[in-house]
Fold these 2 entries.
Entry 1:
Amino acid sequence: MGVRSYVEIVQIRACDVQSGDVVNKRGPDRSGWTEVAKLEELESGSYVIHDETNKDSFTAIGYDLIWLQVVHELRFNSHLPVD
């Protein structure tokens, strides 16, 4: 059996998004998640967060909050007590 993981959803600023991040601009909803292909800074100081196809790309100001999936290793079984 391989390593299992769990996902924590945290908020970061748009200016801190990086390529490869899985983000959602709508909050911690079950839908709307996209993998970031590129973060582009515009002359206005805003950012365009691009997905691979540019279908779900969106703009944000640097201090706008973006929801980010952070994956952690699940070390124990969910139903067994841990010391």
Entry 2:
Amino acid sequence: MMKNKIQNRIDELCTLFVFLYHGKEGHVDPLSHTNYLLWFEGEEKTVHSIDDVMNTPFFDGRTLAEIADEIEITDY
């Protein structure tokens, strides 16, 4: 799934977005349009916009935008 498709799907706020990156599980829980929970290998971070979801270097030091073509989506 491309970066824009991932971003649009998360911003629909309909479900947890779960993926594997380098064999490690990560997810984005879109609680509202101003509250998203990022989770990766037991670490959590709350961000407050879809731009922050895509551009916060949280997943092994990289952003979701950077790794979008490298992840294996397991639930969305």
